[in-house]
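Worked Example 4.2. Consider the chain below.
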Amino acid sequence: MEWLGRVAYGPALALQQAAVRRRRDGEGPDRLLLLEHPPVVTLGRGAQEENLRLGRAELCERGVEVHEVARGGDVTFHAPGQLVGYLIMDLRERGRPDLHAFLRSLEGALIEAIADLGVAGRRVEGRTGVFVDSGEDASGPDRKIASIGVGARRWITYHGFALNVTIDLEGFEMIVPCGLHDVEMTSLARELGCGPLGLDARVRKAVERSFSRAFA
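Applying the procedure from the previous section yields the following structure tokens:
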């Protein structure tokens, strides 16, 4: 696992692609790259242009890059205060290759990580990602705390997850997150009712522990 700090989206994508090539050629191990991005909107293979609430020109004027990428899913937003994880893994060496099972493992590792911090996460049937347990109040919209979108080349995975830690949630108003109109985005800081002091480092440690257990 490697903490890379803040990395612009283009160089991070190039780093992933190089890591995939090295893994394919047997020159490197599975890797979990942890980082955060400057403000950027990414559109996956299933993205709909209407899920951008602002036009691309206006996003650019606001200093938000836009990238179309070869991962599953719709539109997502990344910015400082969000922990992004790119998992470069050869699924062929972990038994029968199964992207569906891999997605569920990612969800499970994230649910375990945020549980260590005092937030109860859950899956929602038919919706990839991690949501916050609403407890007794089930009347409101699902609150999503982590988005997941992966790609694979010859069963070597790349792209990954984005866990909202201390991110400014107003940034998500520029898009329809993951194309889900009935979902509210949330963060660990909001759910815990705490400030950002020390939270990012605590979250990285929790994620490192849970992913080490989940993916050995």
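Helices lie at 9-24, 56-61, 99-116, 188-192, 199-215. The CA atoms of residues 69 and 134 lie 32 Å apart. Compare this with Example 4.1 before moving on.
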